[in-house]
């Protein structure tokens, strides 16, 4: 059976900002999906330990006051998310995340911030994965399609219902359904094993970054640098 007919796990974070090395987790969801339907899920509300900017609250609906009053310590949330994901990877179950480089980099930064074991360390030093990122796959297999590539836009393209945008659980489930819809439309994606698809996405993401960097520099941003590493971006080195 092709990978999209097997169990998959959706993962999504809602956060305090858009810079993954600096932003903090606000809400999170890990949802096991079989045949397109959730069968098991975990959700978290964290107290991020910093103020949630108004623009972030406007997107996901969580205010600082609510997170402080109802959220659990960020360290505990990061630990539990990491353990849950590592548990699925240890069983060989792929984790699906839309724009995985953001969510996994942010989670990694939180683990480092709180002195917790990395995702790789929880897998006895093995690289994380397999990861399936519909954002990266869609850009590669339908490169010249015009329009936005947000989760909402891509859901419409593939006929996937997004129950509530920027709700971590809804986004996690939608990411899995979009991944499966891409595989249904593109036989070359469905034919890959999860491990092969993971490796192919590393190549696709790097190529996209190279092309986008070239585009930005051609548009008058000569110093533009686009990080092409996937699914984890390393923090920028401090020059001294």
User: What Rg do the Cα atoms give?
Assistant: 17 Å
Kindly report the name of the CATH homologous superfamily: Ribonuclease H-like superfamily/Ribonuclease H
| Total count of domains | 1
Q: Looking at the structure, what is the overall shape?
A: globular
The appropriate CATH architecture is 2-Layer Sandwich
Largest sheet: 6 strands, mixed
Distance from first to last alpha carbon: 52 Å
Sequence of secondary-structure elements = EEEHHEHEHEHHHHH
- Broad structural category: alpha/beta
Number of helical elements: 9
CATH class (first level) name: Alpha Beta
**Approximately how much helix is present in the residues?**
40-55%
Write out the strand line-up for the largest beta sheet, numbering strands in chain order. 4-3-2-1-5-6
Let me know the number of strands: 6
Range of strand content: 5-15%
**Poorly predicted residue ranges:** none
Global mean pLDDT: 95
- According to CATH, what is the topology? Nucleotidyltransferase, domain 5
